[in-house]
Amino acid sequence: MIKNYLKIAWRNTIRNRIYTAINVLGLALGLCACIVIYAIVKYEFSFDTFHPDKDRIYRLMGDATESTGEKLHFGKLPMPLSQAVRAELPGLDAVAAVSPYTVKVSVPNGGKPAKHFDGPGTVIVEPQYFSIFKCNWLSGNLTSALKAPFTVVLTESRARQYFGNELPDKIIGKQVVYDDSLRVTVTGIIADWKKNTDLSYTDFISFSTTKSSFLKKTINPDSWSEGNMSTWVFVKLSAGTRPGQLTARMAGLVKRHADPKMKLAPWLEPLTDIHFNADVVENGIRTAHKPTLYSLVAIALFILILAVINFVNLATAQSIRRAKEVGVRKVLGSSRSGLIFQFLTETLLLTVFAVFLAVSLVKPVLSTFSSFIPPGITFHFFSPSTCIFLFLITVITSLLAGFYPAKVLSAYLPVKSLKGEGAHRGSEKWFLRKGLIVFQFTASLIFIISAIVINSQLRFTRSKDLGFTADAIVTIGTPWGDSLSKVRVLAQKIKQVAGVSKVGLEWLPPMTENSRGMRIKFKSTDLKETGVTQVAGNEDIIPLYQIKLLAGRNLMHSDSAREFVINETLSKLMGCRKAQDAIGKMLYWNNKLYPVVGVAADFHSTSFHDPITPLCIVNRPERESTLAVKLVAKGKQSNSIKATLSQIEKVWAQVYPAGAFDYKFYDESIALLYKKDQQTARLTYTAMAITIFISCMGLFGLVLFTAEKRTKEISIRKILGANAANIAIMLSRDFILLVVIALFIASPIAWYFMSQWLRGFAYRINISLWVFIVAGLGAIFIALITTGFQAIKAAIANPVKSLRSE
Question: What's the pTM?
């Protein structure tokens, strides 16, 4: 029986090639979207889930409220915090500090020149780290590997990179040199973690090395100051201990040890949440956005529902062709349940075809969207989880897409079916099919309107004047903790490079994601301080960024903070009607007086999500370790840019021979402020394209059905004098009306959601009427293209053929 069902299903599939192609392609698109999104979501939620006792592992965090009112989350905390927590807090199995250490690595090679490597995975750790995160030791042991200073543990892959294919036991005792002079001995080799992790460290230098080497000058293991917040602290709770029990105790511990000015509110972050916390200052980890992942799941389900609706629409639309077959089968004794099973078998066959097509499209889609999709995502067809997912989605899709058409087709009365009438107009659910088309185009129009609004807002963020110039500016960070005198030497050398216009030293640029605040008072007697945003750089920063001065002068060269340039908003907050009135006034910061020497025109210090705030520009030489380099050429298209950057790299090598040269174009850093918005835009564009395509296929199938249903009517109209244009308009008019109805339904929905999205911007566009007009005209044009060909084909057909049987 099943063999017979499959044979009939195959014959019907071959006979109705157009319907089969439309159904399979529509389902394949929906299924492909589900599979790709499944791969993304599965990948993102797999980070650091493989550790034993992962539910008891936490990262210690610290919250601080800036003077601007913004709450900042710090993952890097003072280095001695781990020792204090270990000594004073009960309920912990292990505590370990981890300090990232960006270095150049060299490996002695006998009498030959040393081999050089970059060290992005190098960290300074306490030995308790391996008590929290279990590793497979290939050589060495947990208890002694990192106890002594000047020791290092390497991962297997890193050891092979340094020493070739030598056995782990033979690598023990060999030496590795960091930053040209930190010579350490290999005391352990561990196996690499094979699963996804944010803790992808390769070189583990013993924590005690900091106290016995030059590292103590830049990494003070005993300092609780704000400037020494450079360490992640991981803890493993004892069985039965709850995070909430430790939070209050940690607050008291920080209060006892830390600088009173450093007001940190400590809390514990679960290990599996680290991958999703993008709001951490200087996190150093690629994070995922949970709301975006949930949105992806919702979009995948929505697209699949559209594809299923499309299938249902087309299957019921072509029911007139199956009417006689149903009648004959019922007369010959087929039961309704048998017919339902047969039609479900046909649906299953089409779904299997769609699944295989979808699977074949997954890798091309991942490759096409590689810039949007996180690196490391792969799709393995034969993995157990993937096979289970594909099996479930095949069965569920077959039931969703096949049950209703099977129920409709099996309900036909034999007498009417054998006459070729099928069901009555009312029982054909004609209005249901129209409703499904309206639903599909409503979804498409929501995405079209959303795409237009999002694109307009992002274009607005790119075109609106920032209040300063970001073009042709390159920022260069210097090695962490190195001498600031070297930074100034480097700046002087870069100034002499051909193609360089200006060079400035900065800590906080004019516009940044991680802005910092400062608390000032207008009078010494003020009880309350005013929070303002801080921009920190030397006297070259204002001319370099072309910040406009409304009154006063630029900052002067100095070796410490001595004066302020404020923005117009702050001058008004001080009660000055004119910018000139603020010149000479004194501001109190950290109980010291600072004169206002200049007033700058307002500029954006954060993204357009936030309003312009009161702001101070101050020279803080002790923190200015980043170089801002203004290039002569405009933009980044000039061929001279590469040559200039190459010369700058040579100068860099003279000052930092062991440091990795890295630079960023400042306008690209500003663009990153809108990364999440860009992701939203890409998701919307992709969903729009898929929903439009699926909707058009559904509309095309319905036009085919309508033209076939009204063949005799069309023939009679032609005999009575109607021309091809009249017939085409008649067939297309009803469908254009459906699109118009969909526009009226979609417009308020899209307006509401886009209004909510735009509320996240302090500076935003207004949603104009033209957006809905353009979206409606676009949808109508798409519908006309879809229906036009089939309508014209039906209009020019020979009426004699369809009336011959009458």
Answer: 0.72
